[in-house]
Design goal:
alpha/beta, QueA-like, Thrombin, subunit H, 2 domains, six-stranded antiparallel β-barrel, 23% helix, 25% strand, globular
């Protein structure tokens, strides 16, 4: 199945830096009803969305989760803190770039030699910055900090780096630039290890123009995690599931979504993470249809759960009418999701058909690439 989603991309079409300004990124528009393809820039998104559409965006925030930790011997370990998986408690789950024994101590800091490492990570002059390896689950290690876990975000801000996907080569942005540009302008809930990249193109100007056409916005949260970096496995294809990721739909957003659905207005998912959130929560959002629950009549409850939903053809979408997305890496679950949406819309073209056009037209691909709108 994966081979059906393979394609060859010229190296020069990999986006290695974001468009400046953000909304100057190119926009590939495909109308599945007319089979028409057109090209524009993202700043003109409002021209293509039906009036009174509801735009659903993921407000997660990327944390600088990639950190160089130091062993007590002074050796280095590259760590990726999976803050999206933290559910409370006194330990955290971390990917490490090399094996480490249970019981080993690791620490934050930039020590030039052993004495400095010991002083800075466990000395009397400063609070401890040490973490002990207390467990391992396949390639994920369990670390227990000697300090309060609540201090971890501050240490990541101080010592960490933005965790760009491994397929992005040649990115020359500084860490300061990445913390701004590998982040949406509306990001507010820190925990993700990757950005919802379809939302990187939005600017206050775009939102103002959308509002002028009566287009509402609703925010959901899905914290992007390990599954973003992990290639699809035979187990994924066999079970039809992906890694679990936590999502939340605030009561206000659920009400907006339910109202749009009831009024047969167009619901636009911005990015595959918004799609997975909407489709995972659809049963609860639409529960009023058989009388169990009606958000429009005052029932108040945020929807919060975990999803391992793997959307691939064939799939009947329950809430999503239109999709804004980027151009994805070959043989990925994200390509399968977009192709499932095209099939759901009874499109005459597959995702590979659209990608061939995009490549011929020199669109930029992947996280810092251009955008696609499917109507």
């Amino acid at each position: 199945m994966q081979e059906a989603y393979n394609y060859t991309l010229p190296e020069e079409l990999v986006g290695t830096k974001p468009a400046e300004p953000r909304d100057s990124a190119r926009l590939f528009v495909y109308d599945t009803g007319s089979d028409k393809v057109s090209f524009d820039i993202f700043a003109n998104l409002d021209k293509y969305l039906p009036k009174k559409s509801l735009l659903v965006l993921n407000d997660t925030k990327v944390v600088p989760a990639r950190v160089t930790l130091y062993k007590e011997t002074g050796g280095k370990v590259i760590a990726l803190f999976l803050m999206n998986e933290y559910r409370g408690g006194d330990s955290v789950r971390v990917l490490l770039d090399r094996g480490t024994s249970i019981g080993a101590m690791l620490c934050f800091g930039t020590p030039p030699h052993l004495s400095t490492a010991v002083d800075r990570c466990g000395g009397k002059e400063e609070p401890s910055r040490r973490l002990q390896v207390v467990g391992q689950e396949e390639n994920v290690f369990i670390l227990k900090p000697e300090f309060a876990v609540e201090l971890l975000p501050r240490l990541l801000e101080q010592y960490g780096a933005m965790p760009l996907p491994p397929y992005l080569k040649g990115v020359t942005l500084s860490e300061t630039e990445l913390r701004s540009r590998y982040q949406t302008v509306f990001a507010s809930r820190p925990a993700s290890v990757a950005a919802p990249t379809a939302s990187l193109h939005f600017t206050p100007r775009v939102f103002e123009k959308l509002e002028g056409r009566g287009i509402e916005t609703a925010y959901v949260t899905l914290h992007v995690g390990l599954g973003t970096f992990a290639p699809l496995t035979s187990e994924n294809l066999k079970t039809g599931t992906l890694h679990f990721e936590r999502y939340e739909v605030p009561e206000e957003s659920a009400r907006k979504i339910q109202q749009a659905k009831n009024e047969k207005r167009n619901i636009v998912a911005v990015g595959t993470t918004a799609v997975r959130t909407l489709e995972s929560s659809a049963f609860k959002i639409l529960a009023n249809l058989d009388g169990r629950r009606d958000l429009l009549k005052g029932d108040k409850e945020d929807i919060s759960d975990e999803t391992n939903l793997f959307i691939k053809p064939p799939y009947e979408f329950k809430l999503v009418d239109s999709l804004i997305t980027n151009f994805h890496i070959p043989k990925s679950s994200l390509m399968m999701l977009v192709d499932a949406f095209l099939q759901h819309k009874k499109a005459k073209r597959s995702i590979l058909d659209l990608y061939k056009i995009a490549i011929a037209e020199k669109f930029r691909f992947f996280s810092f690439g251009d955008a696609m709108l499917i109507l």
